[in-house]
Amino acid sequence: MEQIRTYFEKIAKLSDTDWQFFLSKLKKQEFKKKAVVLKAGTVENYLSFIENGIVRLCIPAEFDDLTFGFAHAGAFVSAYDSFLTQTPSVYHIETVTETVLWRINYADLQLVYENTAIGNTIGRGAAEALFLEKSKRELSLLNDTAEQRYLNLFAEKPHLFQQIPLKFIASYIGITPQALSRIRRRIS
């Protein structure tokens, strides 16, 4: 849990009172590899901090899911659009590895906002991080070639390549597994 406090204190200093209140609202959950954390069609009720593990965000499909996001230890994850609107999500959140999440539900987060001096700053920090990751990916899909997206992902998060199946990486960068194999052969 100290990872969470360290994350937030990059944004602003937390008083011990605010931290204890926030901490009292967190619930630890452990998930096995390939567990569905959120199923499409259900409302996202949690903002989660990943203590350990990797998750992917994917749109379910009959044959191959479309992976559009990854999150790993030290980051927040949520079907944030569903969380904010409290409407059903159109995508799954699924673990890629065994994963430990610290989760706060929607109602408790509202209490943190109302009852702590730092709550709104904490919420804004988590929201901004999720937004920046989403914007970065969208711009990359519009501006970069598939090879550039692969190289950028490899440069920024090389540890993911040891734990994430290549078919998920191919889907994430917007190509088929066969096209990813050709790119990997070409740059080797």
From TrEMBL:
Organism: Pedobacter africanus
Protein's recorded name: cAMP-binding domain of CRP or a regulatory subunit of cAMP-dependent protein kinases
Alphabetical list of Gene3D superfamilies matching this protein: Jelly Rolls
Keyword Metal-binding: no
GO molecular function term, any single one: kinase activity
Domain Cyclic nucleotide-binding, residue spans: 29-113
InterPro entries: cNMP-bd_dom, cNMP-bd_dom_sf, RmlC-like_jellyroll
Keywords from the UniProt entry: Kinase, Transferase
